[in-house]
Amino acid sequence: MASDSRVSETNKKIYWVPLESSPEAMNKMVYRLGVDKAVGFNDVWGLDDELLEMVAQPVHALIFLFPSLEEFQAARKQKAASSSNKVSPNVWFMRQTIGNACGTMAIIHALANIQKTVPISGPLGEFFEKTKNLSPAERATELEKNESIAALHSQSAVEGQTTAPEADADILHHYSAFVNVDGDLYELDGTTSAPLNHGPSNNLLKDAARVIKEHVKSLNDDPRGFSVISLGPNLSEN
């Protein structure tokens, strides 16, 4: 299967077609990658308690889509590099070196950190096995070379309900993933130097919602909008 990724002639940077922010597009991709169909991505309709109660349980991870503002990202990168940002060695993390791949990066980060809960085989399972002892930078290099994942990403990206932008288009939104590892809530964004530890957590959904609300305030309720998607039971199978 041919990949639709592109390489900039100027700096040889690899770009992928951006993935649509929809559970349907995400599910198509992860099932092709080898994720068990017992789980799936679902919309989170709001961050207030009554709306969070409607989210199918258990929630394994959250995907957050937000406007990419330079000041906000700079603050996150500073926090990630701070000595106070303690990260468990059990957190699976990878740097992002592929342009416009942040949606797939967030999905990979979410799935990589719940491998003990969710069966993963196929190309993604093989990638996790191959990279389990590598550094975040080395994992990024392996993803750049992985034609199977690139091709399946591309196939899913162009099948969305909206017209897919060009691979090297200037995208105004960014993704991150939230997971719970060793009792702490982590936000994973491959453009930062390390996972962001948001502190102790015994309820991934509610604790991540609290952090996301803080992010929204920091972004001054940017009119370009936000979205949150949960990884939990596959509702289409019920």
Describe the structure.
The protein is of the alpha+beta class. The protein has one domain: Ubiquitin C-terminal Hydrolase UCH-l3. It has eight helices and eight strands. It has helices spanning 23-33, 49-52, 70-81, 102-112, 122-131, 136-145, 147-157, 204-218; strands at 6-7, 14-15, 39-44, 61-67, 173-181, 184-188, 196-200, 227-233. The strands form two sheets. Strands 3-8-4-5-6-7 form a six-stranded antiparallel beta sheet, with helices on both faces. It has a two-stranded antiparallel sheet with strand order 1-2. Helix 1 (23-33) runs antiparallel to helix 7. The longest helix has 15 residues, at 204-218. The protein is globular and about 40 Å long. The two termini are 31 Å apart. Mean pLDDT is 88; it is low at 1-10 and 162-169.
